[in-house]
Specification:
Blueprint: H1 10-20, E1 29-32, H2 42-57, E2 61-66, H3 76-89, E3 97-99, H4 104-116, E4 120-123, H5 127-134, H6 151-162, E5 172-175, E6 190-194, E7 208-210, H7 212-222, E8 227-231, H8 238-247, E9 255-259, E10 262-264, H9 271-279, H10 294-300, H11 304-314, E11 321-323, H12 325-339, E12 342-343, E13 345-346, E14 349-354, E15 363-368, E16 378-383, E17 386-390, E18 410-413, E19 418-426, E20 432-439, E21 457-458, E22 461-462, E23 466-474, E24 498-507, E25 518-521, E26 525-529, E27 540-545
Parallel strand pairs: 1-2, 2-3, 8-9, 10-11, 12-25, 14-20, 18-21, 23-27
Antiparallel strand pairs: 4-5, 5-6, 6-7, 13-24, 14-17, 15-16, 17-22, 18-19, 19-20, 23-24, 25-26, 26-27
The chain binds adenosine-5'-triphosphate and magnesium ion.
Amino acid sequence: MDQPSLPSHFLRQIIEDDLRTNKHQGRVITRFPPEPNGFLHIGHAKSICLNFGLARDYGGRCHLRFDDTNPGKEDPIFVASIKEDVHWLGFDWGEHLYHASDYFEELYQFAVDLIKQGKAYVCSLSAEEVRQYRGTLTEPGTNSPYRERSIEDNLDLFTRMRAGEFSEGAHILRAKIDMASPNMNMRDPALYRILHQEHQNTGDAWCIYPMYDFAHGLSDALEHITHSICTLEFADHKPLYDWILDQLQVPARPRQYEFNRLNINYTVTSKRRLKLLVDNKIVGSWSDPRMPTISGLRRRGFPPAALRDFCERIGVSRSESCVDMGLLENCVRENLDATAPRAMAVLKPLKLVIANYPDDQEDFFTLANHPKNPDMGTRQVGFSREIYIEESDFMENPSSKFFRLAPGKEVRLRGAYLITCENVVKNPDGTIKEVICTYDPASRGGDAPDGRKVKGTLHWVSAQHCVQAEIRLYDRLFMVETPGKDADFLTQINPQSLEVLPHCLLEQSLATALPEDRFQFERQGYFCADRLDHSSRRLVFNRSVTLRDSWSKITG
Ligand code: ATP
Ligand code: MG
């Protein structure tokens, strides 16, 4: 397929070569194979974009396959979340939804076939003994005393394993390959183990379960996968992948290719660690907006197109690397800058009274929803004698570089009027109660009638025309670039990763925002109505990202 604009990488080259040489009868069939033992994270997004993206670009298809061979750790909740996340990212498996467990009967028959060929045997060593016999990286292993069991005995024992006659750990089925192989994966690896556990898909139908390495390649073959793309840690398993497929009569011969997994600084991309964050209640759930899970990023307000853009930009290679979190945040910023309507929200309100503005008067200003995109329309923003500005936009004793509001100074209220600060009213404890200003009625819209220079422009909301909201400010979950490197990662949590502001004031137009609607709150950043907690009765917004990269070393 001629698509010169596609970024080229080694996997595209392999596929294009295969198409040219007609290796798989011109087909490209990939799969995304998550184990349903947790929620998907941003690393999985890379794999999803890669597998579904390659299938799309080369006119093929991509299967969603649940690699469900560990019944104890898997859960239908995870299955549902994975499907939702893949769809949300913008990909669709159509009718090609599978489970490794769909093939348990076929896999069993493949195992029987290996036994009949004398290439698999039932081993009755304990787990500890199996470990001892395996040898080390520098020493060869030792053959199991059960390695030469007769084919008849093996078939009999394997049948009885399936029938539930034995307890867990009594026997395993092993491939008979080479206990002296320099590759530990080839030292008679386990193919089946006994587990008296219910399975999320097959219930109590089985009490023996295939090992990942046995199930994976054969599932690929049964689905006629052409390119089985996985992360680099599986490179050592490839000889076993090939060995299994080469011994058996399989309907297709897939090939495994490895690429570099995605690591991002200031977070963790491992389901095991993410589960610890949930289990230790460091975050609220797998979908907490601070989590690098797809559902967490979604709730935070990251658009799916920004995640796809990010996965495209980081590229694919065979060398391990760590990507800067700032890159992901920048993809989000770029996307939202173009797509998010603007609005005004005051996060830490300070009351401001306009002394010469009549009590019974109100104004409505027509503001553009987007500075560069007239198609996004306009909205009416109400104005009255009492307004609120951001606490930090006023200083009683300003420094010379402070261009916002201060006694005697004039500023612009965005899209409304120019105002001058006349007075400050204090509470008994000395804190500021309100600021008294006057406005220039001739400056309607915010422009000085005589062209005088006014440097500061503030966002504001009118007391009569605003709604209250809770705003949640999120920051990076970890204080250190590489969590877990110098200490237990659970001790490196950023204590400021969440700040809740319960009494924010937003312009009235935001009262009708729906969950997951995204906005730029002027001068504050990009925000998203919370997917779970936001409703018309209780407005809750999450900050997705700040307007600029506050973590960047260059600008910081
Ligand atoms: P984890 O290490 O987080 O538990 P996993 O590899 O065990 O992840 P699976 O559900 O087995 O999770 O992964 C499904 C697919 O996603 C696999 O093909 C795997 O290679 C890929 N994948 C997992 N983590 C990453 C990552 N960080 N970057 C790219 N691909 C990944
Ligand atoms: Mg895995």
